[in-house]
Amino acid sequence: MSEQKYLTVTALTKYIKRKFDVDPHLQDVLVKGEISNYKQHSRGHMYFTLKDENARLQAVMFAGNNRNLPFKPEEGMKVLVRGEITVYEGSGQYQIYIKEMQPDGIGSLYLAYEQLKKKLSEEGLFDAKYKKAIPPFPEKIGVITSPTGAAVRDIITTIKRRYPISQIIVVPALVQGGNAAPSIVQAIKQANELNMDVLIVGRGGGSIEELWAFNEEIVAREIFASKTPIISAVGHETDFTIADWVADLRAPTPTAAAELAVPHIKDLMDKLLDRKTRLHRASYHILSKRKEQLSSIQKSYAFRNPKQLYVQKEQQLDRMMELLDYNIKRTIERKRNEWERRHELIRRHHPKKQVSDGENLVASQTKLLQKAMLQVLQKKKWEFDKRLSQIDALSPLKIMNRGYSIAYNENNDVIKRVEQTKIGDQMSIHVQNGFINCEVKSVKEEQKDE
Questions:
Q1: Looking at the DSSP assignment, which residues form a beta bridge with residue 96?
Q2: Which 8-state DSSP code applies to residue 394?
Q3: Is the Cβ–Cβ distance between 152 and 170 less than 8 Å?
Q4: Where are the domains of the chain?
Q5: d(Cα 180, Cα 424) in Å, to the nearest integer?
Q6: Rg (Cα) of the chain, in Å, rounded?
Q7: Into which CATH architecture does domain 9-103 fall?
Q8: What is residue 312's predicted lDDT score, i.e. its pLDDT?
Q9: Where are the alpha helices (DSSP H) in 85-240?
């Protein structure tokens, strides 16, 4: 069995890559497709997939090739590309290295215009709140355009015809070509340093490529940052550039920009004449009214009889003085009464007076209490004596004083009936002044009639 040779994956991939690289049909390929899985690396390289209904193709566009793209590729965008097909050895996949790309269906410039317009609009550069007012009577007008074009002649002619007292300063700038945008930016910076009242930035008509400098982002941002109000005048009425959206005022043509920048001298003269007429008419009206007022004042009583008016005022002054004197005295009297009332009120409620009144009240109440207690004591004493007399009158001793006595048996029981004794019992008889001990000799019961 013969020995078989195996290739490494790297060797096979390099072999296939060489096949791609030497194929002249793969060196300059035109492909159209839809962008998918778009990703832009931080170094500027673009990676995405080109696809159609049946196939996919990996694509790379390095920063050196995409730096000047006028539009930004997006997911789902259909594009036309030109590039080289080769194999990326790291993954073994073939892919296209794109050198040129443009949108499929619409022009790249139009797409770039729409993308920049959307971007600046979202940042607020078109907002009306940032628009500066155009001065109504500018003294210094700056014109930024080509010094040899027809636009500058139209602008100068129109301004001199309408407002010859203004000063026109032309700041030359390139308005077409690759260096036009930086030239316009530099001209705007220079014009701002010259303290202009208003700037006209523009050029005559042309194709979108010829007008493209006014769609550049650097021009738009410089117009937005300008301290001097700017009127844009680019192309014809149907040409709308990014500069028109950012400018403080947009004019459809350079001639129209000049008309918007300055008033017409004839209109000013007409207004001046109208104001002069109205001023004369108003002055005459005011003067007539003042004369009538003066005549009325001269005919007034004060001017005709000033002495009488003085006398009346003297009398009025006397009455006022009397009234004032009366009111002063009345006020003083009222204040004095009020003071006395308050003084009396304070005296009555003074703590010392309150203490004295309290002491007097205590002494008075003490006397009344002592008197009441003495009366109660006397009454109680009388009642006591009365009770004592009643008790004394009922005392057995009092009864014995009248000759009565009380007999007790040997048990000290009071003998009330003869049945309580018998002959021979010892007994004790209590008389007024002592006791008599005796013996029962006989017992006789008394018969009582029924």
A1: 59, 85
A2: T
A3: yes
A4: 9-103, 113-263, 265-298
A5: 177
A6: 68
A7: Beta Barrel (2.40)
A8: 78
A9: 108-123, 150-162, 180-193, 217-225
